[in-house]
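User: Before I run my own analysis I want an independent prediction to cross-check against. Here's the chain; please return only the structure tokens and, at the end, one sentence I can use as a sanity check.
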Amino acid sequence: MINKAGLLETLVEEDEEGIEFDFAGEFMPEFEGKENPEYYQFWYDNKVFERSDTLEFFEIKDLPRLGVQLNKYIFKNITLPDGRTGKLVFTKFIPQVDSDVRERLGVTREEFALSQKPMEFAYALSTEKLNYILWFVDIIFILASILAVIAVRKIVTLVVFNSLKPIEEFNRQLSTISLNSDQREVAVESLPVELVPIATGVNQFIKDNHTLYTREQRLTSDIAHELKTPIAELISLSEVALKFPHEKQITDNLAKDVHEISSRLKSIVNSILLLQQSGSANQLAIVDIELNELISQVLRRENTKNRLIKLSFDNSSLIAKSNKFALETVLSNLINNALFYSPVDSEIEITTSKTSIDNTLIEISNVCKEEYQKEDLDLFFDPLWQKDQSRTSTERFGLGLAIVKSYCERIGARISVTLVGKKITFSVSIP
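Assistant: Structure tokens:
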């Protein structure tokens, strides 16, 4: 609108004779006919100077006259003389003066402008077509927005649905796994790469739990078996005593036999409680322990038959930071086992050494009475495991090494066992 208003302003010229508006209607038919007409109007010296022919067709023949500063534009929404909605631009300007006229009069443009009066100009056109286009654009934009939302929602739904399929399959496989089922792991071949580490971790968790479950089953069965024998003996003794109350030999030995069997039961229960205590999560107190002195104390208590012991201490004063009760329990069980499972005329070897600034090694070796195989070494630390499957021993229940391993884990020590011929060596590495 400003460009067209500026074009119409250039058609106004002023000279010494007055103001002339040089307008040709054939080049701007929109100001001549009734079809989609546009309107303009000039005011000069507070009087109408010129108006478009289109204003003559209607009852209202004047456009609104507004107040405006020189060379400024004002826009206003109006109702056009033909009744349509439109927009009006109103401005005030100084008519142009041809350079030939200024030259003929011998004055500059600024000097001529001092004698000029400003003209007011209004130009109006219909905005209905433009409004229709804008409404159409708005409708297209709204429809496009709605379709975009629907499309995005559909795409997101499909993406999420397809993304969850592997997780659903993973969950389905997990639901079929139990401690008693044959399937003990999730198949990772059909899973996406992102889920493979999770499935691998879950499989390891399932494997560890199944191992623990199997171990607990075996432990429960072994405990029942260990308790069953002395209980059966007590029942047999009581039945015989009831059946032959006057048999002097039976009644004389009854108290002694019951005491021995009860002591064995107590020993089993105490060992089970000690094993359970070794696995407790309670924090153990760490103190400085003089290892050689501790080993000597254990030997004085365990070596009641004065067996031959070969001691080899790397340092006369070897200090280790650990829990005294746990370390003493470990050493007591290992030394007691070495004394019990070796021939009475054989020698027990105990060595201590400093393998590094922060590490101390204790090794206890003995010759075995039993014939052990390499595969037996892995079973040594299982609770209630015994080489003798018939469990004929009434003094050993297979809990000592399980307690040793559990306490070593509590104090951060590492225990290992090696077998060379018939010589077996237990090594405890204390940090």
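Sanity check: The mean pLDDT is 86.
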